Amino acid sequence: MDVGTTSYRPPELMFGNQWYNTSLDMWATGCVVAQVVSLGSQTLFDSGDLGSDLALIKSIFSTLGTPDLEKWPVTKSLPDWGKMAFVQYPSKAWTELLPNASLDAIELVQSLIVYESGDRMKADEVGLIISD
């Protein structure tokens, strides 16, 4: 069963992760915040007209840079990682991705949109930032 909504799905779901926790929601939150602060209707990542996992993976990798084991160590435990070779994309600067956003907003987004799910900001930490 698929979890998450197309363009807001974290990458680990496309590689067979079935261990679900709030880190999935934090990725999606980062995607929503990015969309809001960029003042546009476009999502940060694009899953194409049909909501394709491969299109979403390409969009994520071409935006954040193609990850390796150093950047995303949990991939060694994902059942579908390594079944395909991907183009090695460099990461884009957050200021380029979110040109209309404040530095605080960019900092929030980049702490939520992180390959390694355990490194994503937690909900209670986001609440502390927003209440300041």
TrEMBL record:
It comes from the Eukaryota. GO terms for cellular component: cyclin-dependent protein kinase holoenzyme complex; cytoplasm; nucleus. Keywords: ATP-binding, Nucleotide-binding. The keyword S-adenosyl-L-methionine does not apply. One of its GO terms (molecular function) is ATP binding. Residues 1-132 form the Protein kinase domain. InterPro entries: CDK, Kinase-like_dom_sf, Prot_kinase_dom. GO terms for biological process: G1/S transition of mitotic cell cycle; regulation of G2/M transition of mitotic cell cycle; regulation of gene expression; signal transduction. It catalyses: L-threonyl-[protein] + ATP = O-phospho-L-threonyl-[protein] + ADP + H(+); L-seryl-[protein] + ATP = O-phospho-L-seryl-[protein] + ADP + H(+). PROSITE patterns: PROTEIN_KINASE_DOM. Its EC number is 2.7.11.22. The keyword ATP-binding applies. This is cyclin-dependent kinase. It comes from Aureobasidium uvarum. The lineage of its organism: Eukaryota, Fungi, Dikarya, Ascomycota, Pezizomycotina.
